[in-house]
């Protein structure tokens, strides 16, 4: 199923949990499409400010958000956060109604999705995994790509909501298929990002000014969309706000290599990228943007020069 334009139909109350860099614009587009939106965020003031801006209702707990919602969307940082939001007396599962569809849109990983599905089903709900690919700009313009694992019935329920956030929606199979697709996409993203960092520093050390070599990157065969929209992060790492932390990249690369081990697929490039990202995190750059792999490499060049 690809991204042809279709009218968005209200699908009952939609609960959205996680209003971070990606979640906030995604949730805003859900509201703009006419869906009745309830939001929850760990920092209540963030949810209140967001709700005032888009006309949503604030829930004081994940349980309250899920209560009465026909679709519950989570856009959270990692599997640990997902588990914390779903479990306990104030968690999503405690408020989930019979037949409600839960849509996990983060990068949880196939094993985490399988565990989450068992919990959601036990609570009377249905799980869909629908991670997305795209920048914060794509989230704002509702032009993300959604990779969906779901039954045909669940997909029919959530498709209008997904199309309020994504210009391309791919239904890839049963629950879990979306998570696998997202890891496959991210594997290429991290390979490209780390190669950009290496090539940028290589050219700089050979005497080419940083901006000029990046101009070449954007005019060459490697000019993927990411190369263009992440230009500032590579050229001005100190002056550009982080868009995707290296700790999150490290987490995803671990999920990729774990899945590859389970399937018996050699992923030597992913293993090398995980090792490099781990060194970057150990270098104190865990909260920095993944483009700061280049910063780490410059430090290593300087260290070698001073030794």
Structure description:
With 307 residues, this protein is of the alpha/beta class. It folds into two domains: 13-173, Rossmann fold; 181-306, Orthogonal Bundle (N-(1-d-carboxylethyl)-l-norvaline Dehydrogenase, domain 2), CATH 1.10.1040.10. 54% of the residues lie in helices and 13% in strands. It is built from 15 helices and nine strands. The protein has helices at residues 23-32, 44-54, 62-66, 79-86, 92-95, 110-122, 136-140, 152-163, 177-205, 210-218, 225-229, 231-235, 246-263, 268-285, 293-306; strands at 13-17, 36-40, 57-58, 71-74, 101-104, 126-129, 132-133, 144-149, 166-173. Strands 3-2-1-4-5-6 form a six-stranded parallel beta sheet, sandwiched between helices. Helix 6 links the parallel strand 5 (101-104) and strand 6 (126-129). Helix 9 crosses helix 13 (246-263), helix 9 packs across helix 14 and helix 9 packs parallel to helix 15. The protein is globular. The N and C termini lie far apart (56 Å). Residues 1-10 have low confidence and may be disordered.
What can be said about this structure in brief?
With 307 residues, the protein is α/β, with parallel strands linked by helices. The chain contains 15 helices and 9 strands.
């Amino acid at each position: 199923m690809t991204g042809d334009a279709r009218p968005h139909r209200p699908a009952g109350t939609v609960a959205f949990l996680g209003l971070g860099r990606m979640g906030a614009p995604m949730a805003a587009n859900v509201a703009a499409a006419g869906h009745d939106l309830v939001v929850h965020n760990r920092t209540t003031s963030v949810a209140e400010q967001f709700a005032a801006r888009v006309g949503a209702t604030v829930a004081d707990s994940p349980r309250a958000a899920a209560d009465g919602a026909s679709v519950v969307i989570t856009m959270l940082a990692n599997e640990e956060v997902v588990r914390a939001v779903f479990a306990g007396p104030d968690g999503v599962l405690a408020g989930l109604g019979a037949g409600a569809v839960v849509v996990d849109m983060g990068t949880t990983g196939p094993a985490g999705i399988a565990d989450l599905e068992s919990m959601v089903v036990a609570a009377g709900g249905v799980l869909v995994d629908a991670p997305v690919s795209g920048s914060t700009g794509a989230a704002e313009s509702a032009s993300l790509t959604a990779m969906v694992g779901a039954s045909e019935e669940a997909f029919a329920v959530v498709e209008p909501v997904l199309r309020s956030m994504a210009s391309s929606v791919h239904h890839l199979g049963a629950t879990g298929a979306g998570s696998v697709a997202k890891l496959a996409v991210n594997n290429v993203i991290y390979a490209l990002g780390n190669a950009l960092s290496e090539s940028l520093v290589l050219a700089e050390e050979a005497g080419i000014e940083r901006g000029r070599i990046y101009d070449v990157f954007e005019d060459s065969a490697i000019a993927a969309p990411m190369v263009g929209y992440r230009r500032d992060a590579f050229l001005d790492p100190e002056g550009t706000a982080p868009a995707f932390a290296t700790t999150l990249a490290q987490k995803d690369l671990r999920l990729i290599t774990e899945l590859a081990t389970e399937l018996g697929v050699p992923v030597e490039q992913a293993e090398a990228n995980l090792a490099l990202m781990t060194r970057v995190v150990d270098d104190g750059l865990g909260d920095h943007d993944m483009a700061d792999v280049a910063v780490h490499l410059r430090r290593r060049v300087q260290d070698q020069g001073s030794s």
